[in-house]
Amino acid sequence: MKDLEKSTCRIALVQAEPVMFDRESGLAQTLAWIDKAAGENPDLIVFPELFIPGYPVGMHFGFSMGKRTEAGRKDWKRYYDASLVAGDAAFAALAEAARKSDSYISIGFSERDAVGGTLYNSNAIFAPDGTYKIHRKLKPTGTERVVWGDANRDYFPVTETPFGPIGSLICWESYMPLARVALYQKGITIYISPNTNDNPEWQATIQHIAIEGKCYFINSDMLIRKASYPADLATGEDIKDLPEMVCRGGSCIIDPYGHYVTEPVWDEESLIIADLDMTLPAACKMEHDAVGHYARPDVLELIVHE
User: Fold this and answer.
1) What average pLDDT does the segment 290-306 reach?
2) Is residue 306 part of a domain?
3) Is the per-residue pLDDT at 1 higher than 80?
4) What pLDDT does residue 64 have?
């Protein structure tokens, strides 16, 4: 691992309710949270999965086996129109926010391909100079696959920072063991997980990964209420049976020993602030380095097609 330029990282973890299906309002809300977080002088600001334009939990978009509906197609096109194209005006605003706040910013968004008609579940990490790297979700989970495509590039980008390399895997990508190892092999000190997982067993998963990778695990979840959805959706019947609180959050930070730096926050918006000791990821590897002295490359080998 490279020597650190900074031995601490101040993180601002945003747990908030997205503005569903609305790119402009979602961007405005994101910028407002960045301004609020900037008051804490963070090194890193983290937002959840698909924060712009929201994660449409429970929606089917008119898909059934071998069938589609015109109402579902209408809602999908509405979501498509609210998605971001990398490098567009929204990206320019986020890049400027990173420069203004002098921080790294990680944000999940629905990415619309600039040429084709495919959407991707993506996460961008902006650097303080306004540059950015994008990770596209390798394998959308379950019926996500009818909305977003498999990543066709941007598989395992890592951003070099003064507090070590950082990267992200989105939601259930963290259940892909080889994808985790691909990040470990790049020496990440902070593993960012934008997700929509408020199930209790997920907490065990994230503690395990922090121990396995000897890295900080940033569990970035959001609040979604039944009232979060637009009232005029063409497929509004998808929403009527959802609970009032569709996603409860649970955002938290885990250290490389698997301990909570911050406990999970449930059922409320919150700006979670923590100062991370960045000497820990290296120090913890004394007894266990999954891709170093605790590996057997003569027996097991991972080949990554970047």
Assistant:
1) 95
2) no
3) no
4) 87
Q: Which residue matches tokens 């961008």?
A: 124
Provide the domain limits for residue 113: 11-286
Two tokens, residue 79 = 């979501």
N-term to C-term CA, the chain: 21
**pLDDT of residue 217 exceeding 80:** yes
Q: Give the long-range contacts of residues 274-277, CB within 8 A, separation 24 or more.
A: 274/10, 274/11, 274/13, 275/8, 275/9, 275/10, 275/11, 276/8, 276/9, 276/10, 276/11, 276/163, 276/190, 276/216, 277/7, 277/8
pTM score, two decimals? Answer: 0.97
Segment 145-197, tens digit of pLDDT = 999 999 999 999 999 999 999 999 999 999 999 999 999 999 999 999 999 99
| Residue 297: inside a domain | no
* Alpha carbons 237 and 239: distance in angstroms, whole number: 5
Task: Indicate which residues carry an active-site annotation.
Answer: 49, 137, 171
CATH of the domain at 31: 3.60.110.10
Q: Round the average pLDDT of the chain to a whole number and report it.
A: 96
Residue 214 lies in a domain: yes
- Residue 123 CB burial class (10 angstroms; 0-12, 13-18, ≥19): buried
Tens-digit pLDDT profile for residues 51-60: 999 999 999 9
Q: How many domains does the chain have?
A: 1
| Domain presence at residue 305 | no
User: Strand, helix or coil at 123?
Assistant: strand
d(CA 124, CA 69): 32
In this structure, is the dihedral angle defined by the CA atoms of residues 103, 104, 108 and 112, taken in order, positive or negative? positive
Q: Which residues contact 22 (CB under 8 A, 6 or more apart)?
A: 53, 54, 82, 230
